[in-house]
Amino acid sequence: MAEEKCEKDTTCETCNESSSCNQQEKEAHAQERLESKLSHIKHRIMVMSGKGGVGKSTVSTNLAVVLSRDGFNVGLLDADIHGPNIPKMLGIESKHVEGSGQGMIPVEVFPNLKVISMAFFIGDRDNPVVWRGPLKHNAISQFLGEVDWGNLDFLVVDLPPGTGDEPLSVAHLIKNVDGAVIVTTPQDVALLDSRKAVTFSRMLSIPVIGIVENMSGLICPHCHKEISLFKKGGGEKAARDMRAPFLGRIPIDPEMVTDCDRGMPFVMAHLNSEATKAFEEIADRCKGYVGFKEKQRTLEKDKFPHHFEQQEVKR
Amino acid sequence: MAEEKCEKDTTCETCNESSSCNQQEKEAHAQERLESKLSHIKHRIMVMSGKGGVGKSTVSTNLAVVLSRDGFNVGLLDADIHGPNIPKMLGIESKHVEGSGQGMIPVEVFPNLKVISMAFFIGDRDNPVVWRGPLKHNAISQFLGEVDWGNLDFLVVDLPPGTGDEPLSVAHLIKNVDGAVIVTTPQDVALLDSRKAVTFSRMLSIPVIGIVENMSGLICPHCHKEISLFKKGGGEKAARDMRAPFLGRIPIDPEMVTDCDRGMPFVMAHLNSEATKAFEEIADRCKGYVGFKEKQRTLEKDKFPHHFEQQEVKR
Asked: What's the predicted TM-score (pTM) here?
């Protein structure tokens, strides 16, 4: 077997003995490296949406910031290959990823919040990434298997919209995703797509942690009356219809757009706002959910120890 | 050659002699059918954006409606496989596509406005289309080669967001795209992606007709003061920076969301609104652009008749 010949923690590109391995052995190494890297990640949460522009990246970013502020080690993986905007939202778009023998070192926002994104690898920001499925699959596979995340409590994955290649790839590569947070806006056309995202998640056996209604009800900053821009309450209705939990409503706030553009996470700039409270509530629900899942797993382990022993050996 | 054996206007599935053709001959037929169908379409316009949720489908729909109201024969192709929302926006989502020997018959909105979309082929609206690239390419190829559009003045193609598989497929399949309309919202994160769309379009040798700034400046319906929600003017700046024409600014209007959801094109419901005028302006600019291109082509044809004769024979 390949493992006996060389160090599997090293990537083949930087390994002195790689010339003696054939293609099959190299692929086996990549798979092992992926599994070894993923074994350091406790919980994996996917943030997805059926439709673009509903604020999925905003939700991922603020969720990751709240979790890291609570003391967890958090990794944020921007899996949107064509429109990687998370670095801009965190004010780190000019940073570069450095490499080591153990793989790429993700960009640090705080000591316990690390980010990886396609944006760090594009030289000119105006250049589009014109890639078809297999290339995108490779990129995401590298983001998972060749990034030295270290020990993480949470990996938050910001998926591109839709139900196509990228979400499929990530779900297949990560394995054991704890759950998916589905973001929608309240208008009907967005709801139509978010219902598809719920079904998609279930088809891939990924539990739906819940639905977030973003851009809900706008308060006019001049007269303080409510403007029903994208309507309100649709996300809650979709959650009820699809029998998925409802995680909360994030009011639309012009400050959120400004904060995104200047690279400041909203939850840090506006500590006591309604939207920040909503993000904290969502983070709490996620923590509650993974805690519950872990407890259930421990209970099952106590009941059927042999079943789990076998599983772990197999892995 | 395959053509001698059978009628190329018929799809192989409904042809009595298809059993005598091999795979290569069937592929040649598909290609010929595609070219024969496309030869009935005068002008091809792609509506694209780097980022989702910027209102690309709204722009495509209203542009197609304005053009058809002006008396042109218009086809509207919803190339978003995962989130096909145009039928909902036109109130035709319960319609079905029927077939004939000449191919699928697109759904009629008006006698001179026809639509084809993945939405007509999905049984349960909650079901996602979980397809990878090659399958999506096939679907789009069928939408082009096996739909009996008839004679069209304009085919407006609503692309999915990004610079990935689908826009690539459509651009490769349609050939001779007259130009691309790029939709953006004014905030920085959207502009970042729309600049990518401009470069993408140029990489594929598709001329950029111009950039549309959508969701620009909101007027509070209560106090009538302007709210800078997604900011304003960013699209014009991007156009200037990228040396692309600026096509106009569509103000954000809560009625537009309601109209989308109830299946009524905005330009028909609000004849004298600011947004309708903006859509009409965009349609005029598109007509002007294709007119200019056609004139230029005629002039060139007069100058170099042999060059064009050769090209046409080759095709």
From this structure: 0.85
Mutate to test the interface with A, among B89, B159, B220 (most CBs of A within 10 A): B220
Q: What is the CA radius of gyration of chain A?
A: 20
The tokens describing A190, both together, are 């967005």
- CB distance A196–B126 less than 8 Å? yes
CA dist., res. B60 & res. B120, Å (int): 18
- Please write down the HEC assignment for all residues of B70-98: CCCCEEEEECCCCCCCHHHHCCCCCCCCE
C-alpha distances (whole Å) from A53 to each of A256, B4, B39, B176, B184 are 14, 51, 36, 30, 11
Of A58, A129, A212, A313, whose CA–CA distance to B187 is shortest?
A58
Contact (Cβ atoms closer than 8 angstroms) between residue B219 and residue B226: yes
Summarize pLDDT for B191-204 with one digit per residue, the tens.
888 888 999 999 99
Question: Would an 8 Å CB–CB cutoff place B232 in contact with chain A?
Answer: no
Please, are residues B281 and B181 in contact by the beta-carbon 8 Å criterion? Answer: no
Positive/negative CA dihedral, A177, A179, A185, A190: positive
Tell me if residue A209 falls in helix, strand or coil.
Answer: strand
Report ipTM for this prediction: 0.79
Amino acid present at A270: H
Q: What is the pLDDT of residues A170-207, one digit of tens each?
A: 888 888 899 999 999 988 877 888 888 999 999 999 99
- Give A 73-102 residues with CB within 8 A of chain B: 81-83, 85, 88-89
